[in-house]
Design brief:
Blueprint (H helix, E strand, L loop, with lengths): L2 H14 L9 H10 L3 E8 L2 E10 L4 E4 L11 E2 L7 H7 L4 E8 L9 E11 L4 H11 L1 H17 L3 E4 L5 H17 L9 H11 L2 E2 L2 E10 L2 E10 L3 E9 L8 H15 L4 E3 L6 H6 L2 E11 L3 H21 L2 H20 L2
Parallel strand pairs: 3-5, 11-12
Antiparallel strand pairs: 1-2, 2-3, 2-4, 5-13, 6-12, 6-13, 7-9, 8-9, 9-10, 10-11
Helix pairs in contact: 2-7, 4-5, 5-8
Length: 350
């Protein structure tokens, strides 16, 4: 893509999206393109001029998916508000039989009719500053805040003076975080994302990316000389996407992840971040920290073709089963217990 295309892409996002999520930036798509050979961007033109961009990944039989699907927390197309596109024609022009998404942002009217599920994505509004946010926590999550502040003091007193670095550039700290996160995935019975080479390489590329609309941000918490917790995410001018948090299990009694959350939120507010996007997914800490929720969608746009049929049979029955489990509290709890049991078996393996 030309520099003019990149400039237009960012200008369209600024015009059409109230939230400048870095996953929708051209820089994120370019990074994915370096590790995923099927990554493409379809350019929508009107009267010969570029008027929009549709990033995707193409697989066999024209089976497409949102770019970075599996790690991307915000998906869709970037279009001029006055441009009208037929979604099926867009797929045909992109040589796709299907386009799958699981974090489609609200406002993507082109694709919303094809959504089969919607999910809450909790966020923290920091537009009024950290002091205002902390006062909200004292009202809405008083017990959580009290516990976090107490653990902050305990960790510093028992282990060593605390030092928080908002933008850490030490590659060793990133490697440590990825090791911790891999262990967490295995321990909880989930697929280890960092065992996939493309995700491993993508994170390293993004760690070296530094542009106004997409920058890798590694934030770390030290206690004395020990690295005890870390988070790697993406930021734009105004949004920080919470992505890969982890901590040293040796210090679990001190809740270093909890301490990191508050330090990170305070530093983000000081750096001009208006919103911290905690991402889709259930977690007690997200419920305690959030100020409101966005909505993201999953589903697929299909056109009649062999590739679309293959997609339906390979994905939709499993998607429907997951949706059914999520909607039944007892089944959802049982599924979590099963994953934890699988994780314990993995941990016992030599």
């Amino acid at each position: 893509m030309s520099p003019a295309d990149l400039q237009l892409w960012n200008a369209l996002r600024a015009k059409t999206a109230p939230v400048a999520n870095p996953f929708m930036s051209p820089e994120f798509c370019q990074a994915v393109g370096r590790v995923r050979p099927g990554a493409r961007v379809a350019v929508v033109r009107e009267d010969g001029e570029a008027a929009g961009f549709f990033p995707f990944e193409r697989g066999r039989w024209g089976r497409g998916r949102a770019i970075g699907l599996g790690v991307s927390d915000c998906q869709g197309a970037v279009l001029h508000p006055d441009v009208h596109v037929d979604p099926h024609q867009l797929l045909r022009a992109s040589a796709l039989s299907v386009w799958e998404f699981n974090h489609l942002e609200s406002g993507q009217d082109l694709f919303l009719p094809f959504a089969t599920g919607r999910f809450a994505s909790p966020v923290i509004d920091l537009s009024s500053g950290y002091t205002h946010y902390e006062n909200l926590l004292r009202t809405r999550s008083r017990k959580f805040l009290k516990s976090a502040l107490a653990q902050n003091r305990r960790l510093g007193r028992r282990v060593g003076p605390l030092r928080f670095v908002f933008d850490e550039r030490d590659p060793a700290a990133l490697r440590t975080l990825m090791t911790w996160k891999s262990a967490q995935y295995r321990r909880t019975g989930r697929r280890d994302r960092f065992a996939q080479d493309w995700i491993n390489h993508l994170v390293r590329i993004l760690a070296d990316t530094n542009t106004p609309d997409c920058s890798g941000l590694l934030s770390v918490l030290y206690a004395g000389d020990r690295l005890v917790a870390a988070h790697f995410g993406l930021r734009s001018r105004t949004v920080l996407s919470y992505w890969f948090p982890a901590y040293d299990r040796d210090f679990a009694p001190f809740s270093p992840g909890l301490v990191l959350h508050l330090r990170l939120i305070e530093a983000a507010a000081a750096a001009g971040i208006d919103m911290l996007d905690l991402g889709r997914g259930d977690a007690a800490y997200k419920d305690s920290l959030k100020t409101r929720e966005l909505t993201v969608h999953e589903g697929a746009l299909l056109r009649r073709s062999p590739g679309a049929v293959l997609h339906w049979f390979s994905r939709e029955p499993a998607r429907a089963a997951r949706r059914f489990v999520r909607e039944q509290p007892r089944l959802k709890t049982a599924a979590v217990h099963i994953l934890e049991a699988v994780g314990k078996v993995r941990d016992r393996r030599p």
